[in-house]
Amino acid sequence: MTADGALRVLVVDDHPVVRFGLTGLLQRDFEVVAEAATGEDAVRYAAALKPDVVLMDLQLGAGIDGVEATRRVRALPDPPEVVVLTTYDSDADVVRAVEAGATGYLLKDSPPDELAEAVRRAALGQTVLSPDIAQRLLRTVRAPAPALSRREVEILDHLAGGLSNREIARALFISEATVKTHLVRIFDKLGVETRTAAVTTAVERRIIRLSRP
C-alpha cells in the first residue's frame, strides 16, 4: 500500500492488449506497480516490488503457467494475495488455482466494478469468487467427483508415461476402443478435457505419482 493508502497491484497476462486494458482500468483506483507477461516475471516482480495483490492469468505461454506462478508467489515471504483473472472456468482449473493459494477467481467478462471490489477484498484476505465459480466449488464440495477405478488409474499411469492409446492398449492387453472409453470416463471424473490436464490433475490429487529418473 502506498503512502496515500492506495493498493499496489501487479498485472500478469501474456497478451499486451489485455495488460494495457487492465492497467488503464485499475489505475483509476489503484497503483499498478508493474506488468508481467510470464509466470517467471510475475514471481520475480512480486518478490521485488511487494504488491498487495497480483492479478494472475492462468495461461501464460512458454514457461510456468498461472497456477505454478501463483504457488511460487504465495510461497514468498510476506506474500501478496493472488486473484486469478482468466477465461478458463473448468472445475479442474478452479480447484488447481485455489489449491495453489489463490484468494480469488474471476472471469475476464466480470464487470469493472466487480474487479475493483475483488482487488480490495483480496487485499483484506477475503475470498473472492465469481458467482458461477462459487456455485461450481459448492457443487464440488457437496458432491465430490467419483473415484477412479483401478483400471482407470492404470491408464493414467501410462498417460503420464507418454504412451499413446495404441501403446496403452498393448500394455494392458485391451482394445484401443476400450482405452478411449476409459479416457472419456477419466476426463469426466476429473473435470478435464485433455490428456495433459488429466495427468496434471491426477498428480495434484495424488491419484498417481510421476516416476523420477
From TrEMBL:
Residues 8-123 form the Response regulatory domain. InterPro entries: CheY-like_superfamily, NreC/VraR/RcsB-like_REC, Sig_transdc_resp-reg_C-effctor, Sig_transdc_resp-reg_receiver, Tscrpt_reg_LuxR_C, WalR-like. It comes from the Bacteria. Keywords: DNA-binding, Phosphoprotein, Transcription, Transcription regulation. GO terms for biological process: phosphorelay signal transduction system; regulation of DNA-templated transcription. The modification 4-aspartylphosphate is found at D57. GO terms for molecular function: DNA binding. Pfam families: GerE, Response_reg. Residues 141-206 form the HTH luxR-type domain. This is DNA-binding NarL/FixJ family response regulator. It comes from Saccharothrix tamanrassetensis.
